[in-house]
TrEMBL record:
Swiss-Prot/TrEMBL site (Transition state stabilizer) positions: Q134
GO MF assignments: cysteine-type deubiquitinase activity
Family of the protein in this entry: Belongs to the peptidase C12 family.
Domain UCH catalytic: 4-271
Active site, per annotation: C140 (nucleophile), H211 (proton donor)
Protein name as it appears in the record: Ubiquitin carboxyl-terminal hydrolase
Any one GO BP annotation for this protein: protein deubiquitination
Recorded catalytic activity of this chain's protein: Thiol-dependent hydrolysis of ester, thioester, amide, peptide and isopeptide bonds formed by the C-terminal Gly of ubiquitin (a 76-residue protein attached to proteins as an intracellular targeting signal)
Swiss-Prot/TrEMBL keywords: Hydrolase, Protease, Thiol protease, Ubl conjugation pathway
Residues marked Important for enzyme activity (site): D226
Entry-linked InterPro entries: Papain-like_cys_pep_sf, Peptidase_C12_UCH, Peptidase_C12_UCH_sf
Native source organism of the sequence: Oryza sativa subsp. indica
């Protein structure tokens, strides 16, 4: 990542002023702290919950997963397709007997079908789930807010003509990479992010190792939206009523995998009723 911003503080007051200033009416929604992941503490969070933001420390495992995810995307998830060139060469050199040509042709058709199915599924997902890649360093807090609001747009009333109103209308038909490029060149968002980053209680520091992701429920599925990944990660069935509890299960597992760190934070975006 070339451009780097000052990171946003994991602070509901900061996130609320940021969100309200960009076009979510103050009486529509607000971020609040989630003080713990036990049922009693989750019950204290105002309902309904529209999204969950999770801040956690990155590890070498996260870097490995990002690289493997990129590799999986580049091969469309079909390992068998990567060896067909060699098979074709074998056919041309008559090493493969003629009787095996039918098998090879069938495998080529299967690979083509699987590739088209993967492309179709990815396209369908991108139309249902609002997702953007992150190409600006330390912009994960802003990307998390964008994911949270973008996937709750039907439940929120954005101020007409506001930044968010214009942003989502302009990027609705873009793919995740195009949205990232649009955001990277957007001076208005960069200025708003800078103001929000300077409003926190801690000293601003560009050298951080923590990362924000967002959890949203879309069409009955829980999605983890991480701008470092190539696409949304589905964690199984969910509902608007159980979004917080379902996200908490995933977050608990993430925390358990890094027991030596205390740098975790959870915030919920709640609809004001």
């Amino acid at each position: 990542m070339g451009k780097r911003w000052i990171p946003l503080e994991a602070n509901p007051d900061v996130m609320n002023q940021f969100m309200w200033g960009l076009g979510v009416a103050e009486g529509e929604a607000q971020f609040c702290d989630v003080y713990g992941l036990d049922d009693e503490l989750l019950a204290m969070v105002p309902q309904p919950v529209l999204a969950v933001l999770f801040l956690y420390p990155l590890t070498s495992l996260d870097d490995d997963e990002e690289e493997s995810g990129a590799a999986a995307t580049s091969t469309a998830g079909d390992k068998d397709c990567t060896i067909t060139v060699l098979e074709i060469l074998l056919v041309e050199s008559t090493i493969v007997e003629f009787a095996e040509l039918d098998v090879l042709v069938l495998r080529l058709h299967q690979c083509a079908f699987n590739l088209l199915l993967t492309i179709q599924n990815t396209w369908d997902l991108s139309k249902r789930v609002y997702f953007t890649k992150q190409t600006v360093g330390n912009a994960c807090g802003t990307v998390g807010v964008i994911h949270a609001i973008g996937n709750a747009a039907s439940k929120l009333k954005l101020v007409e003509g506001s930044y968010f109103d214009r942003f989502y209308k302009q990027t609705v038909d873009m793919d995740p990479v195009q949205r990232a490029a649009f955001l990277e060149e957007d001076d208005e968002m960069e200025d708003a992010h800078s103001v929000a980053a300077s409003a926190g209680d801690t000293d601003a520091n560009v050298e951080v190792n923590e990362h924000f992701v967002c959890f949203s429920c879309v069409d009955g599925e829980l999605y983890e939206l991480d701008g470092r990944k190539s696409q949304p990660i589905c964690h199984g069935p969910s509902s608007p009523d159980t979004l917080l509890q379902d996200a908490a299960k995933v977050i608990k597992a993430r925390i358990a995998s890094n027991p030596d760190s205390m740098n975790f934070n959870v915030m919920a975006l709640s609809k004001v009723v």
